[in-house]
User: What shape does this take?
Amino acid sequence: MFRKKFNVKAEHFPFITTSLNESTGDGALGTITNFYDPSGTRLSSDTLNQHSNTDGSLRGYTTRAVYTEPLLKRSLLEFSVSKANTQNNQNCLRMIIISCQENMIT
Assistant: This one.
C-alpha cells in the first residue's frame, strides 16, 4: 500500500492493493457396477472411467482514496472512496468413458 502524508495535519491517501490467485486440479473416478437377477445370476456390468482437469485464475485490484480531518484532540472525520474490479476465469475438461458388458443367459 502506498501512503502519502501532506504537510497539513492528518490527511492521508492510500491507493492500490492487488490480488492474484492461480489454481489447477486433476481428478479421476472409476466405478464398476454389476446388475443381478433375483436368483443371483449376473446379468450385466457397467464400467465408468471419468477424468477431469481444471485451470483457474482470479485477478483483482482495489483503488481507495481516504481523506481524514482532525475534529478534536482524539477524534477525526474520514471520507473515503473506493473502486474494485475482479476477474475470474475457469476452464474445465471432463472425459467420461462408459462400457457395458452383458451376459447371455441360455
Summary: The chain has a mean pLDDT of 77. The chain has one domain: 16-102.
